[in-house]
Automatic annotation (TrEMBL), chain A:
It comes from Sedimentitalea arenosa. This is Sarcosine oxidase subunit alpha family protein. GO terms for molecular function: sarcosine oxidase activity. Keywords: Oxidoreductase. It comes from the Bacteria. Residues 522-604 form the SoxA A3 domain. Gene3D superfamilies: 2Fe-2S iron-sulphur cluster binding domain, sarcosine oxidase, alpha subunit, N-terminal domain, FAD/NAD(P)-binding domain, Probable tRNA modification gtpase trme, domain 1. Belongs to the GcvT family.
From TrEMBL, chain B:
GO terms for biological process: tetrahydrofolate metabolic process. It holds the Pfam family SoxD. This is Sarcosine oxidase subunit delta. GO terms for molecular function: sarcosine oxidase activity. Gene3D superfamilies: Folate-binding superfamily (3.30.2270.10). InterPro entries: SoxD, SoxD_sf.
Amino acid sequence: MSHRLPDLGRLIDRSKRIGFRFNGAPLAGHPGDTLASALLANDRMMVGRSFKYHRPRGVVASGAEEPNALVNMGEGPGFEPNQRATTTELFDGLTARSQNHWPSLEFDVGAVNTYLSRFLPAGFYYKMFMYPRAFWKHVYEPFIRQSAGLGQAPKDRDRDTYEHFYAFTDVLVIGGGVAGLQAAHSAAQSGARVLVLEQTAHWGGRAPVDGGSFGGAPAEEAVEQLLEELRQMDNVTLRSRTMGAGVYDHGYVLGYERLTDHLPLAKGPRHRLWRIRAAQIVTATGAIERPLSFAGNDVPGVMLASAMRDYAVNYGVAAGKRIVVATNNDDAYRTAICLKEAGVEVARILDARSRGGGALMEEARALGIRIDCGRAIGKVSGGKRVAKVMICAQDGAGGALEEVACDAVAMSGGWSPVVHLWSHCGGKLLWDDQQALFRPDPDRPPTGADGAGFVRAAGAANGHAGLDAILSDATAAGRAAAKAAGFKPKRTAAPRGESTEEQPLEPVWLMPREAEPHLRAKSWLDFQNDVKVSDVQLAAREGFESVEHTKRYTTLGMATDQGKLSNINGLAILSDALGQPIPATGTTTFRPPYTPISMGAIAGEARGDVFQPLRKTPMHEWHEQQGADWEPVGHWRRPYAFPRAGERVHDAVEREVKNTRQAVGLLDASTLGKILVKGPHAGRFLDMLYTNMMSTLKPGRCRYGLMCSENGFLIDDGVVARIDEDTFLCHTTTGGADRIHAMMEEWLQTEWWDWKVYVANLTEQFAQVAVVGPKARELLNSLGGMDLSAEALPFMAWADGQIGGFDCRVYRISFSGELSFEIAVRAGQGLAFWEALMQAGETFGVMPYGTEALHIMRAEKGFIMIGDETDGTVIPQDLGLDWAISKKKDDYLGKRAQERPHMTDPNRWKLVGLETLDGSVLPDGAYAVAPGRNANGQRNTQGRVTSTYHSPTLGKGIAMGLVLNGPDRMGEVLEFLGTDDKTFKARIVDPVFYDKEGEKQNV
Amino acid sequence: MLILTCPYCGVRADETELSPGGEAHLTRHGPGSSDDDFHGYLFTRENPRGVHFERWRHAYGCGKWFHAARDTMTLEVFGTYPAQTTEPPRDICDAITARHPGWNWRDFS
């Protein structure tokens, strides 16, 4: 059983106890514990169940690479799933629950999958979920949904806050172990600004656990000295609990700082996302120990040898009372020695190498530990915890030689440098045959804007072992980084490091080498996603030769740990199955982030009201006070309607339409785009942008125009007013203003740069009010000012003048079919002008109206709306707008495209009006069916609804739609499909439903 | 995230300040052009592993369009230059040639 040791525990404070809960049970630990060490101290060997087979799983690692110990953390608004117990610092009151089981961790129904495992091999879902077809909906999909995901999704809104932080540095060092600190020290001597990130709360990495000495002091002391020197340097910034999450183009790096995860009561943001620009980067990210692949290597109690040592030295926790160590290298002997000295029984060291190791082996033997060379673990037995191991020869098929009872197993298959950050931005790797590892290829680093490398690996991350080699590599890396960043490095010698010399390892990818099939089917590679040696071998037999394909087929390395433990072992097995060397197989792609980072940190401050800026017209507050029902349009909010107290929105819309048609209404039209186009070539430019001729427009007059993309599709419409010979004001749709302005700039800067034209987006400089209805002129005249008579200001004219003392520009244009004046005043005058109109309009029955009334009135008139009648596939000719396309112009944007064969196809769907036979409202987007069915068995179609409303003016449903040969089929009745098998019969009619002659607007 | 220097205002702009505009040095084909030419202009784009010429706009800066010559594999930037040109300037071509001897403009696909 795992337990707290009487001694050791350099990171915990034994004088204090803190309480926490796991699956509801009250437990105790010490300050300095991780959740994993505290669970182990309480003999909680089993902490979760695996994803596929629901097998019992225990803590296997001690850091970021942990695949098993994922828990649901916290409760309510502080709840978060899939938190690694090994990197969670214990605090008083912590609550955690294990994941992926039902009804309980101890007894789990899903564990039946483990007995079905021979029916659930690699890629089983591709094989099994295909047939019979009817099973998909009722059996397979519910099953997959039930089993998807590990932890639970949070139900409450996150109570915490997060922030982004920008940082710039000459040299960024990722990793605060001995190599990182030494590289930082060496770089900082040059005067360069140095930033050091360490993902854990502690500095020094593995050195204080592994021992050795440098700079004349034991490692732990030497680390403190080095840290103290760095803290004294003004040009050095040290950040612990901050992970280097990803390295991107041109020295961009994301750092992920966990500020209050361990201090739940502290104020301030929980996580901080560092957005760093670094001239040079040193990755001193260390190495991760590899598991060994033997049968039962996933039973709780089987642990990485280095993790077992970490728990003992750092937290004073032993993983068991009687331990067996399996290894292919010297380093694992340190674990045996450490535990033995702490009073734990080490039953056996099984060294797969026939001749064993070097000095460390001798040291272990001198302590009286029995060492068997050329031996391997054939199988670990035990359900929810290790009970015994069966020993066999490494060079064999697994024939049992002996059984040894034990309650924990330490395994070590060698070390893999953490090359993730080196690789994120294109750094390449080379295979080091002697050490059996991939390490950064210094000749193929990630390159920056100057074409030179901007990342250097240092220490264990660079494939070095032993303190002396690591220190000298780190010193060189720091110096080189400073120099590359433009500083003059100092020639200081690296401190001498001393650590016990090690004999080379012997690669062991399968234990024993010729393990029989039933053993391979229980030898886990990926603990979290339940991928075994037999799965990868099956994938290879089925023809998955690419490591990227095998990964996706077997899901090897696709869990939340991204294969930190499984990748190298998996691709070694694949290489063996394919009969090729490991470098020929290669690795899968390393992608950021290094470990998962919170969604909150990615969002930063951008949530709630500051998620995105809200654009407000000068009259916005007035609308708000009137209780406007809002509609988002682009980044604006526009009133959809102005419901009165107790009035339904739909009724308000009906009232607004009727009042505008019968008396007078006001519309806040300030959001419409207003783009000034000015210069000697302004007319020529607009002739290219609009489909119709704008250069012939007379000053003082307005003209409706259409804009197409170079693809020929209609993208925007609006009224253009010619101000003077050189000046035009182009009105665009609300959503189109910024886009159209940008498009104008693009053509002027990149194609017609010799044309003398300037454009300016004046949208926000003016407030614009549409005064609409038969009483509009009376209302405006009552305020006094300019002559607004039909003679002085005819339809489609504009004039400058004063109304009620306000300077304004009045456009006689109409989007409703009524007598209408669109009046622009300076933005600062907008609210006062609006209020003056409302006040003066009282005697005329004035009412504000919103966007829905606007839409209905335009539909009654058969006017198109960009985004309703158009969707990026519609050309003006489809909408019967041929009258607005100039035949005289040689060229305009979209002209050539509209000559393409499918654009001139007579069978394109064209705009018509639609009226249901019973006066009801057609569903928006409904399709008109045609005889027959298509290849998929679906009904053929011959048209669709693009706009549909209940017309208060006509008292019935009206709609517009695009129909095959529509204009030639007036009077024909079509059948439209609604939802729930409802059908609607509608007649094809003229799209102009109201005032076909246009008399009302032209008075 | 790339850093490109705007040739107009001289700012070393982070990619968040820029908006991309696809391949540079396209020739516009309008009315009167053949179907092939027009199709090529509208739809056919280079997608090289290596030297590429791109359009960028300093959208959250001076607002100007410019061109960048860079290597899509190594992320090396050979230079940026104003958009008011129909082919890359000499010094940019020289910088590319220095890295890719024998390289030719319009030869990179």
